[in-house]
Amino acid sequence: MINKDDPDYIFEEYKGHTIASHKNNVVGKDIDNLIIVYRSDEFPNHGFIIGLDDSKLSGQRKSVPHNMDDAKGYIDWVVGVQQKKTETKPEKNIVDEKAYDLRVNKGMLPTVDIAGHTFYVDIRMDMLRPKDDFLSKGIMFSNIQNYYDEDKRAYTIPYNPKTHEFQEPDYRTIKELPKDLIAVQFPSERLLDRIGWNRHYRFELRHGLDKQGLKLQFTAKQIPWEKTFLVGLIKSNLKAEKLQEKATEKPQRKRGRKM
C-alpha cells in the first residue's frame, strides 16, 4: 500500500481518479513501467495496475507495455461507463441530517450486525470491532483484502460466529464444508462509514454522501457455502488426494502356479 507522500511515486489527479506513476518509469511504453489508478475516494486501498494482465486464476501475471496515456484512457472508459449508469439512476440521495449529526457531532460509529452480533465500524482502528466482547480480535480490514470484490464493492469472508472473528479454514487440506464457520458478506469500509473514510483520508466530510446517502446500521448477509469458491476447492483437494493415494499404492505381487 502506498501513500500520497510516497517518495517513489509521482501523483496526478484526473477525472476523479488518482494516478500513481513510479519515479523509475521511462517515457512512453515500457514493460517495466509501474502505473496504478485509484478512484480518488478509494485511495490507497483499492487500485488497478495498468498494463498488468490479471485475468489468470493462477500462475504469474503477465505485464504488458503501458504509459500515462493508457492510464488516462482507462479512466476515460471507466468514467464513460459510470455516466451511462448515472443517466439511468433515480434522483440523488438526500442526506439524513439526523444521522449526519449523530455521526459527526455526537461521534456515533456505524454498526454492522453479523450473524446476530453487533460490530462497530472503526476505520481509525482499521477494523470491525465487536461490541461487548473484549476477548475477540474482531475483523481487521487489512486481513481481509483478498476477500474484496470490486464489482460488488463488498467483502465475503469466512467467519467464526462463536469467537466473533474472521477465520480461514485450511485451504490446502479442506475436504468438506466447514461446520463451525459461516460465509458472510458486508460492504466495503468506505460504504460502511463514509464520514469516517472521508475524515481519515482528508476529504470533505460530505464528499460522496449525495450519491451514497448516509446509514448508521447495516446487516451482513450470510452466503451459503455452496455459492462460494470453496465447493470447487474441495473437489480439487479430493481429486488431488485420490491421485496421491494411487501414486503411493504398491503394486501387488502376482503368485505363480504351484508345481
Name the descriptors.
single chain; 259 residues; alpha+beta; five-stranded mixed sheet; five-stranded antiparallel sheet; 6 helices; 16 strands; 24% helix; 25% strand
The proportion of residues forming helix, as a percent range, comes to 10-25%
Give the N-to-C terminal Cα separation.
78 Å
What is the chain-wise order of helices and strands? EEEEEEHHEEEEEEEEHHHEEH
User: Which value, in Å, is the CA radius of gyration?
Assistant: 24 Å
Question: How would you explain this protein's 3D organization?
Answer:
The chain has six helices and 16 strands. The model has no long low-confidence stretch (mean pLDDT 86). With 259 residues, the protein is α+β, with helices and mostly antiparallel strands. The chain has helices at 68-88, 97-104, 189-192, 194-200, 209-212, 230-248; strands spanning 9-14, 17-22, 35-39, 47-50, 52-53, 62-63, 111-114, 117-122, 127-130, 139-140, 148-149, 154-160, 165-166, 182-187, 217-219, 221-223. A five-stranded mixed β-sheet has the order 10-9-8-7-15, with no helix packed on it. Strands 11, 12, 13, 14 and 16 form a five-stranded antiparallel β-sheet that branches.
